[in-house]
Write a structure and sequence with these properties.
There is one protein chain. This protein has about 400 residues and is mainly alpha-helical. It has a domain of about 150 residues. About 70% of the residues lie in helices and about 0% in strands. It is built from 21 helices and no strands. Helix 9 runs antiparallel to helix 10, helix 9 crosses helix 11 and helix 17 runs parallel beside helix 19.
Length: about 400
Amino acid sequence: MDEIPVRNFAAFLLPLFITIAGAGLGWSTSAALAWLERDDEIVRAFVSTFRSEKSTALRTELYRTLLREVGPEKAQDALLATGIPADGSAHNIQHEAGLYLYDTRGIEGIVLCKPTFRYACHHAFVIEAIAERGQKAIPEIMKRCSTEGRFVATQCAHGIGHGFEALYEYSDLPRAIRDCRSGIGTSSPTNLYWCFAGIFMENAIGFHEGAPSPYRLYNASDPFYPCNEKFVKKMARRACLIVQSENTLYLYPMFNRYISKAASFCGTQKEGLVRRICFDGLSRQIHQISRGSNEEMRRLCKLLGNHLEEPCIATIANNAYFYGDNVTAVALCDSVREEYRNTCVALVSLQIRARYDTLSERVRACEIFSRDEEKETCIKVVESMRRVPRAFR
């Protein structure tokens, strides 16, 4: 029999070893990877096997093993190299890097988190730190995160919000909100907003527990509960509305995962802010559902109604850039009708403005747009703090 190249041999055996491990027959993915001699061979085997494996659970186990075998820096690059769509599934898999770094490096490990997949590594890292050390971990976390840049600091604050909600076992949302105010402070409204968003996201999906908690604040017939509770005020309410709007299809049986039903619900909202946020969140869910297919995004956006299709695409472009998918962001803006193109470019530019600390970095990032008029629009947005046109009005 001809000799099988090591990387192909590993790619063939890894799913088998995972299956055997899952069946409790004594093998593990570590044992499979031990057949390989060099990190680059391990990475190539991982990328090949990951691409062919469709189960999120098995993909996560593969990644968990890769972190142990080649270390967090190479593993994070390898996950990006798989080409997995930068959506919620990838975000959840990348959480494993944060868990691994905190468990093996402590607080200092956060500097090894990479910003890929919507800063998932930072989120999981901070949630674990808060769960283990409570509020005393916050000053050190934020100090370390701030050295990595303004945007990294916002994502660490987001993880802190998750951590507070988990720390209080999902049963004291008012206390978690108060602790965001006291722990993060009001000197950085952006960091405070992201902390609030972390609280409400943890309340909704229960990342730390692996599933929504039975003690969370939830009303199956009111997708915007608890946003209108008296203790949820101003910035916290806005954060709550945004988080809830991004989970309507998955968490509320009343829609039965039908986009058209959710869109009808959004259309009935009397308060303009709530209506806009509702459609915005539904568009971001379409981004996740489409799994990287621009054609599918367009098809599903049409379900919102003809006059909302283009705003939906522009919102997804904004979301794609936030997830680190610059190519999709630009392609979507190129696809919208001419009258919406400036809005789409401006929405992507907002993400550029948020991500980079210096003006020169922001201006360079505007080079992703090919047309001169689009670059000019981008530069105008990143040079100032002015508002940009809304996607949904």
